Amino acid sequence: MKYAFTKSETLTVGGKSLPELIAAEPFKSVVNGLRIGHVKPTVPVLLTHSVTDDVVPSKQGRQLGRDWCKLGADVWFTFTPKITPTHIGGAIASYPAVFAFLEARFVSGRAFSNCGWF
User: Fold this and answer.
1) Each residue of 45-57: b (16+ CB within 10 Å) or e?
2) Are residues 79 and 23 in the same domain?
């Protein structure tokens, strides 16, 4: 907690903030190369998301799935209902989908995809 709420520009030699540094080369290329969704996953992916996620907006999860589908990945995407609010509630509510996905992978080796549906 010693550095909580510390402005990043006070921590750099040139006085630039972290967002300023990331927006310029050489960091810009490195960070862009690490952005999730730009590279096709090499294994099937399950994405679950709470429509009322209070940490990561559900539209970001949906977009990630779409991006991976465009790259030709096998993606199974599911939303948890509104009755399971928040980030943690959505995670807990997704357990049945997670177990079904894993069981299908271990038992049959099959990968299911619902690309185009979401």
Assistant:
1) bbbbbbbbbeeee
2) no
Half-sphere exposure of 36 (CA within 13 A, CB side): 9
Domain limits for position 84 = 40-118
Query: Mean pLDDT across the stretch 3-30?
Result: 92
In a domain? residue 3: no
Tell me the pLDDT tens digit for each residue of 28-49. 999 888 888 888 999 999 999 9
For residues 111 and 60, membership in a common domain is answered with: yes
The answer to the question of residue 1 being in a domain is no
Distance of CA 61 to the CA centre of its chain: 6
Its sign, for the CA torsion 43, 48, 54, 57, is positive
